Amino acid sequence: MEQTNPAGRLHAILVKAKQSGGSAFAVWSRVFDEPNTTADQASMEVQIKIFSRILQVRQLVDDAEEALLRIDGLSDKYFRPFQRIRPLIQQSISSLTGSDLAGTMMQITEGDMTVLEFCSEKLEELHIEPIVNEAELQEVLQEVNSLFDEVRAATIDAELKSFILDGLEAIRRGINEYRIRGPKRLKEALGEVIGSLAVNRDVVKAGSEEETVGKFEKLCYRFAAVVSFASDATGLLTAMKVGLLPGG
Fold this sequence. Notes:
mainly alpha
């Protein structure tokens, strides 16, 4: 299946989910390639990560349906799977650690999966998402992880530290969730960073001489360039530059 459109990505995720069994936590841990452990044994960080990604799958369902709605004259049959997919996501959100998904998973039929394939083909006919250089994304992610540890250990203003760590975490989530929602998720992550810049301009300006701020700026520019290329959103790169440059 093509994964350059939301229906294709949703199909791929559901294929993995239907191959798994057990609790909601166990199913989604396998889908997202997290260590095979129980919810009780998993750290709070891992539980939050799994929960966040399920929320992204819920948004992916909306993305796929909205993309199909933009196709004039599309038959209602293309939309039937969504009414059986949404209960699976909602049950997982409502009871991540205790819910058994077997019954709800069975409601998603092979016919539904086939229709999703047709949905993906329809979307591919009309629009192919820009291809992101995943090797470059992984390089950015490595830089994010390295700088996160450096900033966390640094002796700098607490408000500035919080701002940078929040920005790095937003970028990290965006990259990690790119495989769920594609370039749109990267654009959302960059939007979070730009929004935070707008709110914390004085904090950034006051700490502009800090080495970690310079490294964060450079990393943000690089991420913005990737997102701008992937989303044809050059305005985001401009907004990033205006937000970071002194007096911008």
